[in-house]
């Protein structure tokens, strides 16, 4: 129990460090908090061939090999395991190249960003940790005119699921998925379902 | 390698089974694919006190205990570890009660739903698997008038990150995070905007 509680604390610190690095616009800090190839050396990734293997049609169920070995699985696995990242409203980015490039892009277009994290939950099982939180974001772009200090500040309500892996260099991000909260849900009886 | 490939195949089958159960409106099938309390008995969850411990302000950095033991951690951990789920545009749902209730609600309001999965990626590390995919969703609500078979069909472009844990009863969902793809990102110069 004591060991597990320590893990939870460490994961929480790693999660906080991630958002603090984003607030500082610290690209190297953000990079260091993502798993790299060496960290994932024991992992195995399979990338489905486009439009194959991932179709949930009932027809596919009869053939458990569908989309596996037969459809480019070996080639795809050679790419190695990968981190993944979804920014609010974005498609999935996969691999350090795509993911880190996206942070460079976001930092280049963000003059100011602050995260107020609420609803934080950390769950650790073995060498993996799952963190969910609400990111109450206040951000501003570059100044629209010379002399202005900041672009207009914008508030955003975003929820995130962050998956961390234990490494010899601490807990590192394997996946970050953030999405806009667009409407209230039915998680409580008096809430309204989103349209 | 052979062992890992088998894991990847099993995870892909569990992922497909999840979407097929949703397509059939099979509530029990969906429930069976989520981790239950027994599966997560070895895990440890910490829920941050509201507005505490999750704030990424630099001030918090100086005190590593902030938000840990001192702020209701022991009480919160007593709730036990938990599954989590984010539907597109929704806040985070936590625990089997909230998560399964949301599926009952969605099924009650969905006459027809089909998932065409693309961009499937499976990555296995130890007893955890990470799946990312694009859910091309075609769905229809209840018939607006008597005699109509279905409500109007709606297409939706959604991306999902699904986290599975290995159990003695196969791979089970620990987390599902799905979000709408709202705009293009710039991850590849030659990509076309989804809008």
UniProtKB/TrEMBL annotation, chains A, B:
It comes from Streptomyces flavofungini. Residues 81-181 form the SnoaL-like domain. InterPro entries: NTF2-like_dom_sf (IPR032710), SnoaL-like (IPR037401). Pfam families: SnoaL_3. This is Nuclear transport factor 2 family protein. Residues 45-79 are annotated as: Disordered. Residues 54-68 have a biased composition (Acidic residues).
